[in-house]
């Protein structure tokens, strides 16, 4: 393996850190989505001056969606990192494998059906592969380094 390839595979974060970040991001996104879904669905009518049943149902929906998204994010990133470290390649296959395992394991378990597991896994794998092949990323390496401070000396106006 060439040194440039090795440097390309190395990141600042470890695989465990990336997996934890994926799960935490999934938890936050799922909790927000659960809040939106709870407001859209028919919340049970609340008796006069008793708001607790509606609040409990909303919190349960938020928790359910949050944990589902956290599990999908954690499993996806974890399997993607395992595949990348095993194959020593960084390409769309890693994300497709991670997407399939996350969709099949988490959504298939929730759906309690093999056909649901296979279709959810295939959908997440195809989505991940399409994004990776399309090159859509939030980070673009231009080779330029950015510092939180200036590296050039300032010329004082007083001198």
SSE topology sketch:
Elements: H1 3-9, H2 15-40, H3 52-87, H4 92-111, H5 114-133
Helix pairs in contact: 2-3, 3-4, 4-5
Which percent range fits the helix content? 55-70%
First and last CA, distance: 54 Å
Oligomer: single chain
Derived from helix and strand composition plus strand pairing, the structural class reads: mainly alpha
Structure in words:
It is a single chain. The chain has 159 residues and is mostly helical. It has five helices and no strands. The radius of gyration is 22 Å and the shape is flat. It starts with a helix and ends in a 26-residue tail after the last helix.
Could you write a compact summary of the structure shown?
This protein is an all-alpha fold. It has helices at 3-9, 15-40, 52-87, 92-111, 114-133.
Notable characteristics:
mainly alpha; 159 residues; 5 helices
């Amino acid at each position: 393996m060439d040194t440039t390839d090795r440097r390309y595979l190395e990141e600042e974060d470890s695989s465990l850190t990336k997996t934890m970040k994926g799960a935490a991001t999934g938890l936050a996104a799922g909790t927000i989505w659960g809040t939106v879904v709870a407001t859209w669905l028919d919340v049970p009518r609340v008796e006069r001056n008793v708001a607790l049943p509606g609040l409990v149902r909303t919190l349960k929906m938020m928790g359910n969606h949050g944990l589902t998204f956290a599990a999908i994010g954690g499993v996806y990133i974890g399997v993607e990192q395992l595949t990348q470290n095993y194959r020593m390649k960084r390409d769309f296959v890693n994300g497709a494998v991670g997407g399939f395992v996350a969709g099949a394991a988490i959504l298939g378990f929730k759906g309690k059906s093999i056909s649901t597991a296979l279709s959810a896994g295939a959908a997440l794998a195809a989505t991940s592969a399409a994004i990776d092949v399309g090159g859509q990323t939030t980070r673009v390496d231009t080779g330029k380094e950015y510092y939180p401070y200036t590296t050039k000396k300032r010329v004082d106006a007083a001198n």
